[in-house]
Design a protein that fits this description.
This protein is an alpha/beta fold. It contains 10 helices and 18 strands.
Length: 370
Amino acid sequence: MEHKIEYVENDLVRIAKRENNMRRKYLVVNPLQGKHVPVVPSKALKLFTDLADVFRNEYKNEKLLLVGFAETATAIGAQAAISVGAKYIQTTREVIPNVEYLFFSEEHSHATEQKLVKDDIDSIVDEIDRIVFVEDEVTTGNTILNIINILDREYTGKFKYSVASLLNGMDKEYLEQYRKKGIPLHYLIKTDHSDYSDRAEKLAEKGHYYKCSDHTVTTDYMTINISGRMDARRLVDSEKYGAACEKLWTEIQTQTGSISGKKILVIGTEEFMFPVLYIGRQLEKEGNSVRCHSTTRSPIVVSLEREYPLHSRYELKSLYDPDRRTFLYDIEKYDKVFVITDSPEIEEGQRTLINALQNYNDDITVVRWC
């Protein structure tokens, strides 16, 4: 059965301006992705499931490994893997001790180094027929070709490959490269990026910028440590990963009590996105009005222009590395805020995030999945 596309470009594309990035001046901000713009979590997870529906029947007789790209496509890949019952792993820019990596680059990004844990690929080399790379957008496909070349060298052409993305902006030259290599491309929306840089230049005007302090937080907030973390930077069985997220939700409910009829924000941290959307959807089911988004390494220009996607920017210290800048955009007032993270207990980073949220919010709970 042919998949019916439910989306048009305006549903998934807002153009923003990258800060001081000469390789690519614009950034596509997806208002349904749950990264930069607060989103209803069930809408984000439906979007990711709809992407899985595009390719699920193509490979129903193959054993799949889905690879989600950090940091923006980690939740897309996880939900797609759960939807098709595949194994899952994400790329990462974090340090994982005592593993061997496959290194590759994402040349247009603000943080170019990407890694995939080689030990985990080694462990399933005889169990997988095809690797499906999952992205939010593909514009040239060079990043994916970089890692395909590495995988082919390491595993002597063992795998077949496909690409699934919410958006595909590849021109004829890049599409032809993939056709010649026999790598199928699956996507929800075909985009034309030719005028995106000009649009970004015209839109970007002065917005609100805040550099958040890491001084001691004055308002009380709650911290909950919950064990049982499953880390998708390492290979996971997607069904077990979903079950682990359900256990996380159950424990949060146990420790915070039932919540309904509230306006709630659930914040994720950098690469850690899927469990956040999962918890947000469960809170929706309890009768709450929920929004999710996450901190990010991406420094984006903000603007007060109405049509521009991001209006205020909060500069933070990373919860994973206090020497690294991260950002959170467009904080609003909520009845309750949950920060869901798998970060280590680095106080400077957590304080900057709490101080940013406390500009509008008093009831804040940090849940650390450890």
